[in-house]
Every structure is written in structure tokens, then in C-alpha cells.
Amino acid sequence: MQDIGTMDDTLPYTAYDTLQASFMIVGILIMVVIILPWVLLAIAPLVVMFVLLRRYFLPASRDIKRLEGIARSPIYSNFSSVLQGLSIIRSFGAGEQKLKDFYAQLNMHSRMWFCFLATQRWLGFRLDFLCCVLITVAGYACIPLRDTLGSGIVGLMLSYVLQLQGVFQWAVRQRYARAIAV
Q1: Helical residues (DSSP H) of the chain, grouped into ranges
Q2: Worst-scoring range by mean pLDDT, 9-13, 22-26, 101-105, 115-119?
Q3: The CATH number of the domain where 141 resides is what?
Q4: What is the mean pLDDT of residues 15-42?
Q5: Contact of 32 with 39, CB cutoff 8 Å
Q6: Which of 28, 116, 119, 175 has its CA 20 to 30 A from that of 61?
Q7: Measured between alpha carbons, how far is residue 107 from residues 72, 104, 179 in Å?
């Protein structure tokens, strides 16, 4: 029940953040396409690559998060049972065995948590790479048009495209944070 309450509390904020970042991304891409229409040829394959990354990442991340939750549950139940039976554990001298059990459960949870963080880093690296490709294409597309484009417009476009890297990754993480948690 607490998970539903947490989702009810955080979902509006997550939706707002996702929409805000999505509008920023769309606005930046529209500005780039208006200034350099040929960049649209590079954006289309990048969108396809993003969709393929999404198809690969989301099921794996959801399964790893589920396994992390499964590995977390025994830690809490073991802790509460040890607290309730502490006098019995001490009287039979089973403290060392309970400690070994706890370390084994904690180790399993740490493995799953590391896998979850590794999948997040995996996605982050690839999203950063896609954004770097867009930055490179936009930068090199300005070179042949250096006589027709003003330096102010090029500087504005490049500064917004550079911001795209952080905003894009943040928007994707916000978007999939709730999908993975469900």
C-alpha cells in the first residue's frame, strides 16, 4: 500500500518534470532544424537509435529492479525477526550464524543494486553519445554556412544543443523512473 501512496505523491511531480524537459528538448530540436534544416537528416537516425535503446533498456531495467526488490525483502524480514528473537539468538549463541546470513543477504542485494546502477550508466553513456553525435553534426553543419549564418545565431544554437545532453538524459530518466518502479 505504501508503494501506491508513494506513486500518488511523486507521480504529479515526475509528470511535470518529464513534460518540462520534453518541451525543452522539442524546442531545442525545432530551433536547430529552423537554423539548419539539413540537421533533420541526422536527427531521424538518432531518433531511431533512441527507440532501439529504449526497447532494449526498459525490459532489462524493469527486471533488474524487480530482482533488486526481491533481494531487498529478506533483509528487512531478517532484521525484524532478529530484533524479535534477539534474546533467543543470544541464549543459543547463534549470533555469528545470523550475522553470516545477514551478510549473505546484503551481498545479494548489493549485487542487484550494482546491476541496476550499471544499466542506468549503460543507458546514460549511450544517450550522451547520441547527443554528442547531434552536437558534432550541428557544429560541422555550420561550417559551410559560415557566410550566411550570423555568429550570434550559431552561438545560440550551439549553446542550446550543448544543454540538450543533460536535459535529454534527465528527461529519459524521469520518464522511465515510474515505469521501472511499477
Answers
A1: 2-35, 40-84, 86-92, 95-142, 151-181
A2: 9-13
A3: 1.20.1560.10
A4: 87
A5: yes
A6: 28
A7: 10, 5, 26
Distance CA 76, CA 95 (A): 17
Q: Convert the pLDDT of each residue in 101-133 to its tens digit.
A: 999 999 999 999 999 999 989 998 999 999 999
Sequence-separated (6 or more) residues with CB below 8 Å from residue 39:
32, 33, 134, 137, 138, 141
Q: In angstroms, rounded to a whole number, what is the distance separating the alpha carbons of residues 40 and 60?
A: 31
Interior angle at CA 142, CA 136 and CA 146, nearest 5: 150
Is pTM beyond 0.85 here?
Answer: no
Contact 34, 161 (CB under 8 A): no
How does residue 3 score in pLDDT terms, banded at 50, 70 and 90?
low
- Give the domain extent around 127: 2-181
